[in-house]
Specification:
The structure holds 2 protein chains of 2 kinds. Chain A is α+β, with helices and mostly antiparallel strands. Chain A has helices at about 55-60, 65-70, 75-90, 100-125, 130-150, 170-195, 200-205, 215-220, 225-230, 235-240, 260-285, 335-340, 345-350, 355-360, 365-370; strands at about 15, 30-35, 40-45, 160, 165, 305-310, 315-320, 330-335. Chain A has a single domain (about 10-365), classed as Orthogonal Bundle (Cytochrome-c3 Hydrogenase, chain B). In chain A, the strands form 3 sheets. A 3-stranded antiparallel β-sheet of chain A has the order 1-2-3. Chain B is α/β, with parallel strands linked by helices. Chain B has a single domain (about 5-130), classed as 2-Layer Sandwich (Beta Polymerase, domain 2). Chain B contains 5 helices and 7 strands, in the order H-H-E-H-E-H-E-E-E-E-H-E. Chain B has a 5-stranded mixed β-sheet with strand order 1-2-5-4-3, covered by helices on one side. A two-stranded parallel ribbon of chain B has the order 6-7. The longest helix of chain B has 12 residues, at about 130-140. Classes of the chains: A alpha+beta, B alpha/beta. The interface between A and B is large, with 44 and 37 residues.
């Protein structure tokens, strides 16, 4: 008879998480070395949805890359529109009419709301709560309907143009936006905070889990809610105001704890701040054209330029190198989640597998943005 | 003294008074520059360029530069390359930023040979560089000497091509 298999005390095994796993929200694979339920080593494996957007940028004209921008971060596509427009406008020296700037801010912030609502829904789904998803998608749907009316699409927007936006907004959109904000504000305290934020199960599940220290966040180049949950007061909209963000009164929520709960609270508070920005922008909306006259084929002067915007996940940078031709000579896309995820290996070490998944959810990953 | 000037002065430590960048091995910066460099450091208009301090150094100096940036509390935004195929050289660009309220993005750039693209790693100083360097190795074939795990990150694990080189054909 065979002897029963004896496990050594220090024996570890390798566990493959993904690339098709519901908790990774896309095709991300994590190679985990496990000691029982504890993680000894975690190594994210990327590239399953890599499409080489940077090469596509070099192959077409400046305007032809515009639809690609929405295919990276499909949850906050308008911020990618905005970031690319800012980079090209900076290079070509294009002035944007004031009304267009306001419309950009309104639509980007509406899009940020949908992104945070979807993150909230998916994060709680990871943790085993199903009904929050239904509430969040209800609210998100209202905003998507509004955006669909003026942009023509629901997810992969290509709404911004160099020197403005494609389409003016109308009264239906404006009254609809006020109504959506009023509705979301009335639902936030009960359906979002009473039901979920103050829920003891959620608190026990994510408080003190996945602690990312301030210094770690800096060394890994974290930005966005991940950095702000670790006590770093950094938001491109405030630190380096672009567009017309300097004209609005809003706060940047910062939490010192650095755990998953802190990142959760940052995003929940940002929902309120985004609604404040939208209201102020609608109140102050100036009249005028929404698009400047821009030549069909752009030929910015040679040189290199950087432009950053704050997406729902952090600092999105575009480094644009021009050689005077009609194509970008080089376009580097600095996506925020790429840097935010790179700290996962160090932080997840020694964590329980179930806690690591809660930590991963709180990073708010969008895989097509990481892989580009 | 403004924060931008302070940052520029901290980076002056890279360039001891007697030694200047060896122009022959490092190559000249691009011809379209506006403004003068002081030992390779140029203060640029943040509103116009998006960066405030532009540093041009020799390939070996990127490690010392990373140490300085780390000490003064900057974080690494990105590492990338540019293929200047006509001049037969590769440019390696490091973008740094800080969490303060004065806009001060720092770009550190250097040129390396296109046939033997090798540059020291900075991943032991700033772990953020780990993945960015692997990505740059994927796209340009630049070897980051001393990198602990320089295997393809975004490309497939057996990829031996570098798609962002201008002479790449699929």
């Amino acid at each position: 008879m065979n002897e029963p298999v004896q496990c050594r005390a220090d024996e570890t095994f390798v566990l493959n998480l993904g690339p098709q796993h519901p908790a990774t929200h896309g095709v991300l694979r994590v190679k985990l070395t496990m000691d029982g339920e504890y993680i000894v080593n975690a190594e994210p494996v990327l590239g399953y949805i890599h499409r080489m957007h940077e090469k596509m940028a070099e192959d077409g004209t400046f305007a032809q890359f515009m639809p690609n921008t929405a295919r990276m971060d499909y949850l906050h596509a308008l911020a990618y529109n905005h970031g690319y427009c800012l980079a090209v406008e900076r290079a070509a020296g294009i002035e944007v009419p004031e009304r267009a700037e306001y419309i950009r801010v309104i639509t980007v912030e509406l899009n940020r709301l949908t992104s945070h609502l979807l993150w909230w829904a998916a994060f709680l789904l990871d943790l085993g709560g199903f009904s929050p998803l239904l509430y969040a998608f209800d609210d998100r749907e209202q905003i998507l309907d509004l955006l669909e009316r003026i942009t023509g699409s629901r997810l992969t927007y290509c709404y911004f143009r160099f020197g403005g936006v494609y389409n003016d907004i109308d009264d239906v959109f404006i009254t609809g936006t006020y109504a959506v904000i009023k509705r979301l504000r009335s639902r936030l305290p009960r359906l979002y905070h009473d039901l979920v934020t103050h829920n003891i199960i959620l608190k026990k599940r994510i408080t003190g889990i996945g602690i990312l220290s301030r210094e770690q966040a800096r060394r890994y180049g974290c930005t966005g809610p991940v950095a702000r949950g670790s006590g770093i007061d950094y938001d491109v909209r405030k630190n380096e105001p672009y567009s017309v963000y300097s004209e609005f009164d809003f706060e940047v929520p910062v939490y010192e704890e650095g755990d998953s709960m802190a990142r959760y609270m940052v995003r929940m508070d940002e929902i309120e701040q985004s609604m404040r920005i939208i209201e102020q922008a609608l109140d102050k909306l100036p009249d005028g054209p929404v698009r400047a006259k821009v030549p069909k084929i752009l030929k910015p002067p040679a040189g290199d330029y950087w432009a950053s915007v704050e997406t729902a996940r952090g600092d999105l940078g575009h480094r644009l190198v021009c050689d005077g031709g009609k194509n970008p000579y080089k376009l580097k896309l600095r996506s925020p989640t790429f840097s935010n995820l790179s700290c996962f290996g160090e932080v997840a070490e020694g964590m329980l597998l179930a806690d690591a998944l809660a930590f991963m959810g709180s990073l708010d990953l969008v895989i097509p943005e990481i892989d580009r | 003294m403004s924060f931008v000037e302070e940052t520029g002065n901290s980076l002056l430590a890279l360039f001891p008074q007697s030694t200047n960048v060896d122009k022959k091995s490092a190559g000249e910066p691009e011809a379209v520059e506006k403004g003068a460099r002081r030992h390779g450091i140029m203060i640029t208009d943040h509103a116009e360029r998006g960066t405030a301090v532009d540093v041009f150094c020799a390939p070996e100096q990127v490690v010392a530069a990373a140490k300085i940036m780390d000490e003064i509390g900057f974080f690494l935004e990105a590492v990338t390359g540019v293929d200047w195929i006509k001049e037969d050289r590769l440019e390696v660009i490091y973008d740094y930023n800080h969490y303060g309220f004065e806009p001060c993005r720092v770009v550190i750039r250097t040129f390396i040979s296109r046939t033997e693209p090798e540059i020291p790693t900075i991943s032991h100083i700033l772990p953020a560089a780990d993945w960015h360097e692997r990505e740059t190795h994927d796209f340009y074939g630049i070897r980051f000497a001393g990198h602990p795990n320089l295997v393809p990150l975004l490309l497939s694990e057996d990829a031996d091509f570098h798609p962002l080189l201008k002479d790449f054909t699929p």
